[in-house]
């Protein structure tokens, strides 16, 4: 403010004492105003802060309320999804196949159609979440896995409960997370699966558990059993809960028996000698075989391999005669004849014979007296060698035993079936019919099978040759083959299919399926082939085939007669079946109805009653 202002001029004109006394009230008033202003500001700030705090608190309370509602909704949704995951598979199947939380059905039912005793669901039971990274479980039809309706076919035959003769209808499926989504669209399908690992395990066995462990992937089943596997001979080696777990192989049963024993060193050395004989002669013998196969192979690169000795020669003759009576082409057959007598008869029947005796120990001329005897084992080894050699030369091979007759040509049927169904398997096998542990899971019959030549099938037969000492231990070509099939299916992706028993019929149906056999004898159905397996010895085979109309040798055409005919063996053929009754309780042709014949089995039921 400029010094010329009237106030300043006025104050300068006053005396000194008067100036000090007049200034005091002014300063006091100024201080009071400052203090009042300060406290008024403090009060104003406090009021403002309280309003802000109240507003903020209200906002927080509002947000908390909204969040609580959202959390409650999420919890309800989680409960709903858990309930849906547990209960949906149960609702989707008629008898609650996967039933962890289902009040109207038993908790232990694993498959539909189960007639066994089931444990009722406990009212207090609660479902446990799936372990590991499994997110869902469901069920699929076993028929779809076998028939291929699900996208692939396991190729195995159906399995029926031995007691109730009831088929197992469904299989459990565990799902990992879907590849492109966190959820599974349908747990009762494989629609969300890029890879499927199938575990085929035993059915309804008390005390049996299955552990599915997420780890470094293994494609082999690991078995443990509570028993003493090193028990002394005659000791207690049965499974029981009071024993410790021990590692066991696929052939071990709870009764203590072991159907897959390792060959001992003596058996191995014996087998080594056989292999040395085979491989030392292979180049020379296989060249001779190839020269003959080139003359008979058909346009599809197929050859048919058979093995015969003098003791079984009339069965071979019957096969030839039956095929010719039905106008079926057998020109691409080669017979590994193991002795001079059988080679002469084979030539007399108009087939191509082959002497491969330099490649294997010479079997006896007589027939096997029983399944698994020494003659049987030696002939089984020849069957391995013959198929291996033909397959190694690049041919597709149909192998069959001599106790077979054709109703139609099996190779033509297989080609037509592949064309219509789209089947494209590496190998096809007759269904043996047995459902025993040692043949699981395919029950492939080693007496009739077809192998397409490729790397997988050729190496299959090479490994079977390498492991033929298992034939010596188990007395079974079929058991050794079953073991190798399992290994090669898993390790190399070998694909195989077991053919229907209604179309490729064997001894199991003959002895244990009277309704089917009756339909056949009446002409209502007709299989592609018939294989007289499941029969104790050759004498019984002949009698059964004679009375069912599958015998085509003239009367008196027994083994001795066929041998004597030699180069003229073709003259033993009859254009019509020669029917002779033997047993009333075994299948017989309708024109004969052997009801007046004696029973074969003590309590056998008359077939035509």
Automatic annotation (TrEMBL):
It comes from the Eukaryota. InterPro entries: Nucl-diP-sugar_transferase, UDP-D-xylose:L-fucose_XylT. Residues 11-20 have a biased composition (Basic residues). It holds the Pfam family Nucleotid_trans. GO terms for molecular function: glycosyltransferase activity. Residues 330-545 form the Nucleotide-diphospho-sugar transferase domain. The chain crosses the membrane at residues 24-47. Keywords: Membrane, Transmembrane, Transmembrane helix. Residues 1-20 are annotated as: Disordered. One of its GO terms (cellular component) is Golgi apparatus. This is Nucleotide-diphospho-sugar transferase domain-containing protein. It comes from Triparma verrucosa.
């Amino acid at each position: 403010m400029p010094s010329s202002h009237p106030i300043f001029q006025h104050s300068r004109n006053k005396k000194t004492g008067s100036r000090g006394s007049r200034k005091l009230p002014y300063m006091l008033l100024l201080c009071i105003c400052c203090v009042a202003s300060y406290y008024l500001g403090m009060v104003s700030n406090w009021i403002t802060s309280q309003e802000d705090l109240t507003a903020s608190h209200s906002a927080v309370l509002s947000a908390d309320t909204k969040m609580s509602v959202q959390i409650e909704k999420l919890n309800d949704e989680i409960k709903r999804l858990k309930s849906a995951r547990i209960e949906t598979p149960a609702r989707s199947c008629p008898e609650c196949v996967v039933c962890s939380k289902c009040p109207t059905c038993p908790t232990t039912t694993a498959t539909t159609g189960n007639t066994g005793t089931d444990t009722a669901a406990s009212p207090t039971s609660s479902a446990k979440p799936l372990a590991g990274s499994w997110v869902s479980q469901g069920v699929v039809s076993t028929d779809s896995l076998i028939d291929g309706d699900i996208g692939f076919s396991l190729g195995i035959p159906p399995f029926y409960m031995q007691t109730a003769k009831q088929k197992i209808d469904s299989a459990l499926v565990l799902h990992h997370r879907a590849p492109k989504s966190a959820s599974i669209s349908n747990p009762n399908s494989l629609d969300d699966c890029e890879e499927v690992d199938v575990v085929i395990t035993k059915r309804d066995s008390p005390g049996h558990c299955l552990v599915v462990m997420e780890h470094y992937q293994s494609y082999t089943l690991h078995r443990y059993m509570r028993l003493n596997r090193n028990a002394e001979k005659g000791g207690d080696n049965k499974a029981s809960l009071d024993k410790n777990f021990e590692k066991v192989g696929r052939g071990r049963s709870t009764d203590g028996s072991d159907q897959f024993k390792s060959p001992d060193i003596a058996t191995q050395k014996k087998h080594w000698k056989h292999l040395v004989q085979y491989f030392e002669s292979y180049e020379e013998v296989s060249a001779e075989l190839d020269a003959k196969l080139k003359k008979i192979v058909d346009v599809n690169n197929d050859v048919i391999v058979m093995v015969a000795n003098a003791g079984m020669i009339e069965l071979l003759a019957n096969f030839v005669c039956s095929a010719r009576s039905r106008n079926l082409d057998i020109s691409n057959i080669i017979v590994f004849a193991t002795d001079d007598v059988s080679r002469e008869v084979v030539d007399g029947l108009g087939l191509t014979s082959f002497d491969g005796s330099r490649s294997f120990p010479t079997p006896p001329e007589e027939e096997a007296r029983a399944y698994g005897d020494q003659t049987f084992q030696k002939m089984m080894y020849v069957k391995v060698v013959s198929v291996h050699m033909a397959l190694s030369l690049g041919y597709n091979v149909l192998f069959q035993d001599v106790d077979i007759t054709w109703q139609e040509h099996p190779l033509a049927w297989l080609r037509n079936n592949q064309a219509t169904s789209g089947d494209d398997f590496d190998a096809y096998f007759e269904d043996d019919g047995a459902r025993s542990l040692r043949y699981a899971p395919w029950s492939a019959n080693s007496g009739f099978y077809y192998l397409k030549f490729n790397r997988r099938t050729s190496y299959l037969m090479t490994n079977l040759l390498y492991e033929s000492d298992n034939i010596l231990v188990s007395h079974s070509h079929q058991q050794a083959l079953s073991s190798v099939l399992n290994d090669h299916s898993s390790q190399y992706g070998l694909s195989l299919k077991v053919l229907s028993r209604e179309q490729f019929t064997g001894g199991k149906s003959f002895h244990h399926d009277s309704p089917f056999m009756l339909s056949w004898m009446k002409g209502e159905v007709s299989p592609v082939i018939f294989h007289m397996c499941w029969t104790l010895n050759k004498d019984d085979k002949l009698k059964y085939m004679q009375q069912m109309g599958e015998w085509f040798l003239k009367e008196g055409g027994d083994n001795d007669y066929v041998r004597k005919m030699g180069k003229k063996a073709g003259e033993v053929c009859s254009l019509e079946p020669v029917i002779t009754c033997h047993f009333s309780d075994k299948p017989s042709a309708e024109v004969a109805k052997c009801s007046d014949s004696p029973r074969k089995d003590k309590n056998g039921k008359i077939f035509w009653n």
